[in-house]
Amino acid sequence: MSVGVVVFPGSNCDRDVRWASEGCLGIPTRYLWHEERDLSGLDAVVLPGGFSYGDYLRCGAIARFAPVLESLVEFAGNGGRVLGICNGFQVLTELGLLPGALTRNRNLHFICEDAPLEIASGRTPWMQGRQAGERLTLPIAHGEGRYQCTDDTLKQLQDDDAIAFRYVDNPNGSVADIAGITNASGNVLGLMPHPERACDATTGGIDGRPLIQALLA
Amino acid sequence: MTVPRYQARVLVNLRPSVLDPAGEATRSAASRLGVDGVGKLRIGKAVELELEAPDEQEARRRLELLSDRLLANPVIENWTLELQQA
């Protein structure tokens, strides 16, 4: 049972994720360089935060063509668990594994603060049995986290019960206060907040632990 | 026989329904500069490129693929293509 963390040129939360999974929770974790294609032996893959390929063109637009992501599409199609955090969420939308897009924050600021969140759906295993309506607090740190989608896509997300997290106090202008979504089958989760930064009690609390634990649950 | 060369410019703009906070900030800076009367202001991108292709139809086909799949994100952006033989 182990987890892979993709490392793109420009990723900067890859080590934080590994500290959370392996250092705090004892989950065997290995890095996946963006040119790798071999995901054998992995139960879950994390796309970490950062600025993949400098975020040139659009956030996640170049990363989408990384060799490792060809394997990831197949991995996700076979039901493998995929967690995209911040830039990882942006990559998942560019890749088409999740609908919608993430755009410049409404107030143009890079926002770095703790964000109270509401669990919008307890449907998927990511929530570890927690119920819709329960709250947790995770750090956010992004300049382009304003979730956008068409009305049809929003309706589809609602029909699929695929909105995973909402902001209690929407910081960036996201449609419907969306902070994170899953795909219809629930094995792929993307969110702007950083659960890996809330796994060590000495630095930032432990509200993020269930999401990291859920990689292997 | 030389392969024809084309010059293209792809203009990428946010869809009208998508808020453009950077455009709004620029518009308010315009009034601080003392330039009055600036109405709507939206910021996009211009991508200029050169392409070799057997004919214009094929050049257009490749550029449309490129624009749809890489240069623009159709969820939030529209694009237009200007093409001429070099």
Please provide a written account of the structure.
The complex is a heterodimer of chains A (217) and B (86). Chain A is of the alpha/beta class. Chain A contains five helices and eleven strands; from the N terminus they run βαββαβαββββαβββα. In chain A, the strands form two sheets. In chain A, strands 2-1-3-4-11-10-9-6-7 form a nine-stranded mixed β-sheet, with helices on both faces. In chain A, β3, α2 and β4 form a beta-alpha-beta unit. Chain A is globular. Chain A starts with a strand and ends with a helix. The mean pLDDT of chain A is 96. Chain B has 86 residues and is an alpha+beta fold. Chain B has one domain: 2-Layer Sandwich (Mth169, Chain: A), CATH 3.30.1280. In chain B, strands 2-1-3 form a three-stranded antiparallel β-sheet, with helices on one face. At the A-B interface, loops of A face α1 of B.
- Beta fraction of chain B: 25-35%
**Separation of the first and last Cα atoms of chain B:** 16 Å
Strand order of the largest sheet of chain A: 2-1-3-4-11-10-9-6-7
Ends apart, CA distance between termini of chain A: 10 Å
Query: Would you give the CATH topology of chain B?
Result: Mth169, Chain: A
Q: Percent helix among the residues of chain A?
A: 10-25%
Q: Tell me the number of strands of chain A.
A: 11
Mean pLDDT reading of chain B:
95
CATH class of chain A: Alpha Beta
Q: Which bin fits the share of residues in helices of chain B?
A: 25-40%
Query: How much of the residues of chain A is beta strand, in percent?
Result: 25-35%
Question: What's the number of domains of chain A?
Answer: 1
Number of domains of chain B: 1
What descriptors fit this protein?
heterodimer; A: 217 residues; alpha/beta; Rossmann fold; nine-stranded mixed β-sheet; two-stranded antiparallel ribbon; 11 strands; globular; B: 86 residues; alpha+beta; Mth169, Chain: A; 2 helices; 3 strands; 34% helix; elongated
